[in-house]
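Structure (tokenized):
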């Protein structure tokens, strides 16, 4: 598995007040991200457990309030956050909830979910003390027994001082702690919450206990339920009784009773207390005559309880109205300290785990402390609030609604029971759908997922695979398969061999061609890659690109997308134009014995609607793990016609872990002892993001320079940033504030190469005004000046620079091929014909190349210019405009014969990395051309391997264009900017081909089909 580590010379340090679920979860999540934590816990250390696995049943005999009646539920979102080993231990110590329902005091059903509710919303029921103990063990020690965090028991934070630069705290044990953040996870009575926000009593108490039921056939070990009724001793007293089986033989029950001063059981205050056994009779009188849905007497369960805990229920009101942070974000509230809620829907523990996941993810996105500004710190706190406040408010809303409806008394209670029981009897599917909708709403569900989606975390199981596999099967996968399919930080790749057998009938061949299936081949080279994106609407989406027959005449790229459905199925697009519109639904499982991953189609959905009872497409494929990969065998049928069988073996191309930041851990980049550390300017743009991901996958450390505040990219939880990447702010003009740190002051751990992609955008359909043209040119020349200045000031020798140029350097060159060696200054410059649409565009490209060339031989030992063509990417660059033109049935733009220098975004990113590595090797050798091959210290055309005219590009969209768009119309609409569409530039990728570069997309049709 790709074992990425954070590369900062310094790490942020978190001081956490508390030792509960949220604090412990945050501690180990931060530790996995390289963020040290110190936990300060008021409670004494627990006594050593006599066995390695805590026993839930032990809590029933303990008299400690923390271990009595501690049943809780963990829903899918919170379980996905936890690492596999911890989750496995929890499953072993808990029990999956079979189903759940609501009943009246006589045990008659009031509301029930649909039959398969437990499959779509699995809930792990576990004792709270077990969860705490396992979290504690996992937080304190890693798998090798090494300490993860520092923990002080019997200790509180007596005082602290927070400034713009950190927190200084004095502990009750006499120690002082310096930290970057103070995380208040100290519960509902937190000392760090604003004094004006006090816990609010909800007017009722929970009486709860764990009880052992030795009889394994007892009905008490069946369905979980909650009953609503009134006290048998007082008809005006509304009561709720709930019951949940835990790990055999333990069950958990609670009784919610309104309490007030002067009642037979007065409130105990905000602290829980063990109930005097002499008062148990009062509870027995309340539930006298109550029955469970299976007909058992509720009073029997209470009578068998040896220790009962009374907890008066409070909540933190108006969680959206007060700040969850103070001191500019240096002090942050988390868990019950921020949003304590009534325990009516079994989501309190999960909410705390979610908090920790989001906060740890956001903290990991910050640059090192020396590069972190107060604004960045506050932006982290604000992003945390934006993500978590709505979730907490939703859970509180639903929890309060359950209590309000369940604690109705008098005639309204009778009317409630009548309406609900009638619906349960006559409209069960409607009631089940309403039940499920309410549950999904409380869990933060969306159109993409039935529950809240955790932030991306390469070392957790928050991936698509984890959402479609049963929780107990994920661990059955081979580790390298699990890593490849769940490590979403950077694109994963591999290669192997494949044999494709196409259907023999004419109809099968025609259908295969219509869907873009690969041609028949035997033992051909096969490449595959997967990249992951997130969106608030669709959730996580994986894009799988498979290249069949690499290097053969019939080479073909086939791209599909994968998503997880709300009901836990894998949805794979059919590829081509219909990929997002038509998806095959698979049930995924791990086969016992050989650990094979089995995909069985169970249906089709079109435009998000499942087509029931229509067996349009059938597909099955199996992946059997082998060393460093898996063998595969799959078959696709359409309307009963076999379209294709494909089988072979695939081996993973391992990601190299980024090197450590210190000088002692160098990674050779071509001339021994040099760190693979690149600065990428413009690294947050379309090309930059893809190239940064590829560099990290190859084992490079990357420093991204951005003119925006780096913390502006904290869009929790949907931002994925691979480990090995640091963001730094610059002005795009000078080395001020970043140069010395990025190049390392010559300490050997700084950057050795620069990829300069910075520059103002010329796209967006804007006309080129004088102001815009000045910004386009100045931004690029200023960026070159800034990196030259920083490199010179660093004193580092053997630096490499790759400068982004453009295919527009040749102007309108007609059908004449433009080689990499093309010199725009030769023969007196470009002809009048070449600049007939624009003089500015080729002149700007030439100025950029000349400015970059002037940076060698000092301060850069080697400089290369990448003349990048029109990069085809889904949501940026020229592609969206070409797609719009095709949808409007455009046949051609201008005369349609102009050549378009296209390149797919994946090939562009890989080519830029190859050029960077070759140029870095040449710079290290201090002899231009000596070590890097045809790509080093030269100009390289970064374009596709085959030429395509404008008419051919539009035809590749398959929209049947018939409307010619005259050049005059384009000039009228866009002015001089129309040259981007009208210039003909037939660039050839000679040097990439000579270097052995393998294009994944050989034709523009393949590239367009992969993106649509």
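Design, position by position:
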């Amino acid at each position: 598995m790709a074992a990425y580590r954070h590369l900062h010379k310094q790490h942020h340090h978190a001081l956490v007040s508390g030792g509960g679920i949220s604090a412990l979860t945050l501690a180990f999540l931060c530790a996995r991200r390289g963020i040290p934590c110190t936990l300060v816990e008021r409670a004494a250390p627990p006594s050593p457990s006599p066995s390695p696995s805590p026993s839930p049943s032990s809590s029933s005999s303990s008299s400690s309030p923390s271990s009595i009646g501690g049943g809780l539920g963990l829903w899918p979102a919170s379980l996905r956050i936890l690492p596999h080993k911890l989750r496995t231990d929890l499953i072993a110590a808990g029990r999956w909830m079979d189903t759940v329902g609501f009943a009246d005091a006589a045990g008659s059903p009031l509301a029930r979910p649909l039959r398969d509710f437990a499959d779509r919303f699995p809930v792990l029921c576990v004792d709270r003390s077990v969860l705490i103990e396992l979290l504690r063990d996992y937080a304190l020690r890693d798998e090798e027994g090494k300490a993860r965090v520092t923990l002080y028991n019997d200790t509180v934070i007596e005082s602290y001082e927070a400034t713009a630069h950190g927190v200084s705290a004095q502990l009750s044990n006499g120690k002082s702690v310096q930290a970057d953040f103070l995380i208040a996870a100290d519960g509902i009575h937190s000392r760090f919450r604003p004094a004006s926000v006090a816990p609010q009593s909800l007017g009722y108490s929970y009486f709860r206990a764990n009880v052992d039921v030795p009889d394994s056939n007892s009905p008490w070990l069946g369905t979980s339920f909650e009953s609503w009724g009134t006290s048998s001793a007082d008809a005006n007293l509304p009561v709720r009784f709930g019951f949940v089986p835990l790990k055999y033989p333990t069950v958990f029950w609670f009784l919610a009773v309104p309490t007030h001063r002067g009642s037979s059981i007065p409130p105990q205050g905000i602290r829980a207390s063990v109930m005097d056994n002499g008062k148990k009779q009062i509870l027995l009188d309340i539930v006298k005559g109550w029955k469970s849905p299976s007909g058992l007497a509720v009073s029997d369960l209470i009578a068998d309880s040896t220790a009962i805990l009374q907890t008066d229920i409070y909540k933190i009101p108006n969680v959206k109205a007060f700040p969850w942070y103070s001191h500019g974000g240096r002090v942050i509230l988390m868990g019950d300290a921020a949003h304590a809620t009534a325990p009516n829907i079994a989501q309190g523990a999960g909410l705390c785990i979610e908090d920790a996941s989001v906060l740890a993810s956001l903290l990991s996105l910050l640059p090192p402390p020396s590069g972190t500004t107060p604004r960045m710190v506050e932006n982290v706190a604000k992003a945390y609030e934006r993500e978590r406040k709505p979730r907490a408010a939703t859970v509180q809303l639903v929890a309060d609604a359950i209590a309000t409806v369940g604690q109705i008394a008098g005639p309204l209670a009778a009317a409630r029971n009548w309406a609900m029981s009638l619906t349960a009897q006559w409209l069960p599917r409607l009631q089940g759908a309403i039940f499920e909708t309410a549950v999904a709403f409380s869990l933060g569900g969306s159109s993409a997922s039935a529950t809240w989606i955790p932030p991306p975390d390469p070392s957790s199981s928050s991936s698509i695979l984890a959402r479609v596999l049963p929780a107990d099967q994920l661990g059955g996968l081979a580790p390298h398969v699990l890593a490849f399919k769940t490590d979403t930080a950077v694109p994963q790749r591999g290669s192997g061999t494949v044999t494709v057998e196409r259907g023999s009938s004419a109809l099968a061949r025609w259908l295969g061609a219509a869907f873009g299936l690969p041609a028949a081949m035997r033992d051909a080279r096969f490449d595959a890659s997967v990249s992951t994106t997130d969106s608030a609407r669709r959730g996580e989406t994986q894009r799988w690109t498979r290249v069949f027959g690499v290097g053969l005449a019939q080479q073909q790229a086939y791209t599909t997308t994968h998503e997880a459905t709300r009901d836990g199925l894998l949805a794979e697009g059919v590829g081509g134009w219909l990929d997002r519109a038509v998806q095959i639904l698979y049930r995924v499982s791990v086969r016992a014995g050989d650990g094979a991953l089995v995909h069985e189609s169970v249906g089709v959905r079109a435009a998000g609607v499942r087509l029931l009872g229509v067996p349009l497409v059938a597909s099955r494929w199996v992946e059997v793990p082998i060393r460093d990969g898996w063998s595969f065998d799959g078959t696709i049928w359409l309307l009963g016609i076999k379209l294709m069988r494909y089988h072979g073996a695939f081996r993973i191309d391992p990601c190299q872990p980024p090197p450590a930041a210190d000088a002692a851990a160098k990674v050779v980049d071509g001339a021994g002892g040099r760190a693979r550390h690149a600065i990428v300017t413009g690294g947050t743009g379309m090309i930059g993001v893809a190239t940064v991901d590829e560099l990290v996958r190859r084992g490079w450390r990357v420093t991204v320079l951005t003119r925006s505040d780096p913390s502006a990219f904290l869009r929790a939880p949907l931002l994925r940033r691979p480990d090995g990447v640091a963001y730094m702010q610059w002005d795009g003009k000078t080395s001020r504030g970043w140069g010395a740190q990025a190049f390392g002051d010559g300490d050997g751990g700084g950057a050795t190469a620069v990829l300069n992609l910075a520059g103002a955008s010329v796209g967006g359909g804007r006309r080129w005004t004088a102001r815009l043209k000045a910004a386009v040119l100045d931004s690029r020349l200023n960026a070159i000046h800034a990196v030259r200045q920083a490199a010179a000031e660093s004193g580092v020798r053997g630096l490499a620079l790759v400068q982004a140029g453009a295919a527009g350097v040749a102007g309108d060159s007609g059908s004449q091929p433009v080689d990499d060696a093309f010199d725009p200054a030769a023969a007196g410059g470009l002809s009048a014909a070449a600049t007939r649409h624009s003089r500015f565009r080729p002149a700007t490209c030439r100025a950029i190349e000349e400015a970059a060339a002037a940076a060698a031989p000092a301060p850069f030992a080697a400089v290369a210019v990448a003349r990048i063509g029109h990069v085809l990417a889904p949501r940026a660059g020229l592609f969206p405009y070409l797609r719009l033109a095709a949808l409007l049935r455009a046949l051609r733009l201008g005369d349609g014969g102009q050549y378009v220098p296209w390149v797919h975004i994946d090939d562009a990113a890989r080519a830029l990395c190859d050029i960077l590595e070759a140029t870095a090797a040449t710079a290290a050798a201090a002899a231009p051309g000596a070590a890097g091959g045809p790509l080093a210290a030269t100009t390289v055309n970064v374009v596709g391997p085959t030429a395509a005219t404008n008419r051919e590009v539009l035809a590749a969209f398959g929209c049947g264009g018939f409307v010619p768009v005259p050049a005059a119309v384009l000039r009228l609409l866009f002015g001089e900017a129309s040259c981007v569409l009208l210039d003909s530039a037939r660039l050839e990728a000679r040097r990439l081909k000579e270097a052995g570069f393998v294009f994944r997309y050989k034709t523009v049709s393949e590239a367009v089909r992969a993106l649509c």
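Reviewer-requested clarification: The chain is about 30% helix and 25% strand. The chain has a mean pLDDT of 83.
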